[in-house]
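Tutorial handout. Part one gives the primary structure; part two gives the three-dimensional structure as C-alpha cells.
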Amino acid sequence: YLKATRFANRFVDSIVANSPQVRAFTERIEGVPADRLEVIYNGVDLEALHRDGPNLALKDKLGIPRHHRVIALVANYRPIKRHDTLLHATRALIDKHPDISLLFVGANNAADPCMDEVLALAQSLGLQDRVHRGHAKGDIADYLSIMHIGCNCSESEGLSNAVIEYMAAGVPAIVSNGGGNPDLVLDGIDGLVFPVGDYQALAEKLDLLLSNEEIRKQYALAGQNKVRREMALPVMLDRFERHYKSAAGQP
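Part two.
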C-alpha cells in the first residue's frame, strides 16, 4: 500500500495535511517534498455546537447525577485510544473529588471485545458506577453541553475532531502528546498536555482543573478563541480556496 501511495504521489501537485504532525509524517514516510505539502486544519461549524446550557435531560438519561462534574472521552473503544489511562487517573482522583463521573462517547456495539475490556477494568477499579456510555448520533452538541472537561488519551492521533469540538464548545481539553494533539492544544496556554500512558500526570492535570474553576474557564475560553481563529468552517473554506487557486497558478 505504501509503495502504491508513493507511486501515486509522483502525479500529485499538492497534498493537504490537517496538522503539522501529519505533514511531517507524510514527508518522512511517503517521501513527499516539503514544498508540495500544505497544512489546513479541519473546520468546524461553531453555531451547530452551541447550546445555551447543559442538557439535563440527557444527563438524567445517561444516569449521571445532576450535581456531578463530567469528565468525557469521545473515542471508539480501541486499545490505541487508551481509555485505561483515564480510568486509572480517575481512580487516583475519586477520593479527593467524589462528585465526578466519566462519560465515554463512542460506538456502542454490544459485541465489542474492546468495550468489554474497558468496562471490566472500570469494575476492577471500583468505578463501574462512575462510567456512563453514550453514542452521539448527530447530537454531539448535547453531549458537549454536559461536559466539564474533555480528554483525549490516544497513543497516536491525526487531528482529533473530538478535541476540536471540545474546544469549540468551550470545554477545556486535556490531551496526550500522541500524534497531532500538541498541534491542537498548547500546554498551559489553551489546554493541558500529558505524556501518553502517564495516568498520574493526567490525574494531576485533572485535579488542577477540578480544583480551580478560574483556570478551567481560562483554558476553555482560550481554546474556543483558537478554534474561532483557525478552525471555524469559513476559515477552512477560505484556506482551501486560496490553496486551490495557488496550485492552479492563479494569483
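Part three, for discussion. The two ends are 36 Å apart (CA to CA). DSSP finds eleven helices and eight strands in the chain.
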